[in-house]
From TrEMBL, chain A:
Record organism: Pleomorphomonas carboxyditropha
One Pfam family it belongs to: BPD_transp_2
Cellular localisation: Cell membrane
InterPro entries: ABC_transp_permease
Keywords, alphabetical: Cell membrane, Membrane, Transmembrane, Transmembrane helix
Organism taxonomic ancestry: Bacteria, Pseudomonadati, Pseudomonadota, Alphaproteobacteria, Hyphomicrobiales
GO CC annotations on file: plasma membrane
Listed name of the protein: ABC transporter permease
Chief location bin: membrane
Record membrane topology: Multi-pass membrane protein
TrEMBL record, chain C:
Major location (coarse): membrane
Upper lineage: Bacteria, Pseudomonadati, Pseudomonadota, Alphaproteobacteria, Hyphomicrobiales
Name this polypeptide is given: ABC transporter permease
UniProt xrefs under InterPro entries: ABC_transp_permease
Membrane topology: Multi-pass membrane protein
Entry's localization field: Cell membrane
Single GO molecular function: transmembrane transporter activity
Keywords: Cell membrane, Membrane, Transmembrane, Transmembrane helix
Amino acid sequence: MNRALLAGLVRLAITLAVIAAVILAVLIPFALPHDQPGAVVAAFLLGPLSSVRHLGNVAEYATPIAFTGLAATVVFRSGLFNLGIESGVFLGGLAATAAALLLPSFGPFTPLVAIIVGAVVGSISCVIPGELRLRWDAPEMVTSLVLNFAILYAGVFFLNYYLRDPAAGSLMSYRIPADARLDRLLSGTRLNSGAIVALAACLTVGIWLYFTRSGLNLRIVGQGPAFAAHLGLPSRRIIMQAQLVGGLIAGMAGAIQVLGLYPRFSWTQLPGLGWTGIIIAILARENPFYVVPAALFLGYLQVGGDFLARDIGIPSEVVGLVTAAIMLAVTASAIFQHPAVLRLIRRIRRVEAAQ
Amino acid sequence: MEQTSGRPAPLLEMRHISKTFGSMAALKDVSLSVERGEVHALMGENGAGKSTLMKILSGAYRADAGGSILIDGREVDIDGPQAGRHCGIAVIYQELSLAPNLTVAQNIFLGREHRRGGFTDRKAQEAACRDVLARLRLAFPPSTVVSRLSLGERQLVEIARALASDARILVMDEPTTSLSLLETERLYEIIADLKAHGIGIIYISHRMEEIYALSDRVSVLRDGRYVGTLGRDEIVAERLVAMMVGRDLSSFYKKDHRPAADRRTLLSVRDIADDVRVHGCSFDLKAGEVLCLAGLVGSGRTELARLVYGADPRTRGSIALDGRALDIRRARDAIAAGIVYLTEDRRRLGLFLEMSINDNVSINVAAGDAHGAGFTNAVKARERADRAMKTLEIRATGISAKTGALSGGNQQKVLLGRLLETEPRVLILDEPTRGVDVGAKSEIYRLIDDLATRGIGVLMISSELPEVVGVADRVLVMRDGRIVGEIAAAPDQPITQEAIMAYATGVAAVDADA
Amino acid sequence: MTGLAIITDPATFATVLRVMTPLLIAALGILISDRAGVFNLGMEGMMLTGALAGVLVSAWTGSAWLGLSAAIVAGGLIGALMAFAVNGLGANLIIAGIAVNLAASSGTTLGLFFATGDKGMSGALRSGVMPSLDLPFVRDIPGIGPLVSGHNVLTYGALLAVPLISLMMARTAFGLRIRAVGVDPKAAATVGISVKLIQLQALVLSGMLGGMAGAYLSMGYVSWFAQDMTAGRGFIAIAIEVMGMGTAWGTLAATIVIAIAETLAITMQTFGLPNELMQMIPYVVPIVILTIWTARGRARPAGR
């Protein structure tokens, strides 16, 4: 057996063990006061796996965050810490809704047109902080952080003045026409054709990043801007390209989320999918191929949370605590760089070197 | 003063010190003693255990049980940096350890501030600081913010900090690396003064001339073990190198390639300048020649090389290869023409520590290898990495090993491998052996010799004069952005360090191009 | 109401102070952490936690001051937790900040639910409000007296914190050590300063200020807790701290600019200008200012 692969599996096993431990550690305080603590844990962990329909729910939750996770991966790979993805999702959903409502119907291509509009408009949120950084050196983390809110209010303004359905009780758009909505894949869930697009997007970006010259250039620039300049790579263009691609994916996430799930656009707060995307990018170690399993995993947790809320009466927000703890645990170098772990992995590899 | 009857205990004694990290032994039963007023040089290859030993002395690491540290004959327990300081031990690290945003006085008293009513007592601190600065004859006021000082001045502030804390044992780790010639002389004076005050100094350096000039004794470590100590009269370069490497390096420098006098001119640089650091330099490089650019740090050597390579824009001048003028505007143009550059700052500018050897080697040539549609060619990349591993004898677990895990010498070889894969005509090497241990150095010299034999023109920048003398066919000496001297090796008259220094310091008359 | 009348209206002045209080306290908290090299991206979460802790404890004990204390303690605890994650577990600082925000958003919702059975608002709880302070003598000064006197006690606290923190940074051993650790941890370690300890202290202090800022929101600005009520103020505070270029006085100046922008946004709505567009102003201003400053090469590298 390939020793390097074995060493990788050991790492994976440790990661899974850590995640399991963290889930239990967060869950047990909520479970203990309950009559049957075991039932609480079982509902959370096994509920999502109990039927095809629930597995469909997992995939449904995973769809938008796979997109945002992918967007975060691309953006972070450029070396910029651009948090504009959060408002990119919002903007993408809004723009897709606007396209569906205001543009004429394109028949079967209506969803495609709306998604493209959503992606293009949504990309603004990542392009602006990137441009400010490259042109004027403004710190992208800070500008993107506040720009998210500026975009939110601009979007709510647009919703209120141009898309609002006065007949609806609260602030929401007119009903999105049926021909713009995405096809549902599984009855009883809201799983839609967007999931397939998400899968394809992750594979495409993965191939781009690891098997093309342009992807290699991006990885070079992200790791060593000084050397990229030394090599004569057009760093600025490559970095901007990544912001644009990341923004497009974020916008797509919003568009697909709205067209796939909701009858109307009704976001008046940032949806939080961008932040989740960052978590996914971290879990996936900024590798597009790992984004899909990472997104499915968070979707699984979310459905588990829904089971807790429905069957046990514990709010599904527990999932947020679990996710936060996992985020810290899987990035904790104290665990993964622990001498014992490193020694174990080195021992496995050393055998390979000697062979 | 010292007792006249009986032998007084040495100022510092480290006995039977061992240190293991995990299962790896970094130090094995090392002993070292320092007398009052002695400069005790500590030498050894990178990884020999020098810095581990010093970290144990300063309290940054704890030694394994079994060893002991004695000061004035009394055993002390150094269990942390604070304890080390209490024992009068101060370390001046190679990488400076001053906070650049604080003033000189604040830095000197950082961690043990004078206080009055909850606040730091600025006046008292600055007064005390002024005394120390005066003792070192430093002219800047205590309220100077450190970021305004030159690197050399900062080094001296570190010494001032050690003095202010009443250090009795001073460890200097390659203190002259960032010093100008003038500052180095100043440092020598200060060391003499410290000796006169009975302070014991442990001096870590790779530079033989410093060892000659300063040390009373030299101890050598190798692979974490104590090899031996030479007294002042026994210090001979060859002997020290042999002790460090553990074998006789009869052909440490290898120069087998034919002298280049009869070869054709490969690279021809005329009146190149950026008018800031480089002011009109012209030279020719022949095929199969090793041409060294010597000169003091800051004389414009790296800047000249970067102009030739197109890494920085030039204001005037022309570059021709094989007699054909080249239009080099950026690095890419130079690479395309077959001129490649090995940066002196490999960690920042050259290597991707997170990437594998495979990726690192093929980065420059991936564009040429690419399939249609912009896909990279993984098969060819692997071939290239395999070739580099073999020809350069890179020691790693495999081509997928991360370069960050390699030793300095092997990292340098990965970079060289990358450059060689571009099949260069001209190879510019900027301090190729910096931070590389003695064994790998010798391998790099051999490689340079091989390349010259294959007809590649090598332009090498080096601050180590023995190295320049050892490998160069011809030496150009730079000073203040100009080439001020040229020394060619002749069969009857080898290049000497003295001749280079004479040009570099301006002692010899300027006879270079007008 | 004319524009001039709005500007001279004492109520406008009071609004500026009301708006700036939480921002200033939070931004000063970020300042301390930033100078120690542990940029506190979790400020939003710390504020949220403080806001809930203040409401719950003041409702249980009937004392607003105990509520405030609880908020400060809660914020400090999160700061300690973040320090442990970063320096103990070796997690990435920015990720730790994001995790704190996520955990606080979920955690406060859970906390509110278990305390009141409601997930959205604490309206059912009779929680305390921090008192206003009438400054004796000052209030009697004609003209400025009514302007200066009678604001929330935390507003005065925030303003007082500016010189105090400035003095702490410049003139105390603790402040010097924070600055040394922030700019060059290795340098600090060689003189025997414990980098981890200083960063722990800085993050705890930062968290305490965050808790206090949150308490102001739920026990001063309004008198209840609502889900995610900080509404990005922790992020504006980050922008403010960066605009303030790492000094307490600069942070005060930046806070005033943002507070005036937000006050204008609030008052301009009375002219019938679209509410949402006005709400953008306090978020756009920092982007513009930061960009102008960095373009002129004056700001120091911020954040990460």
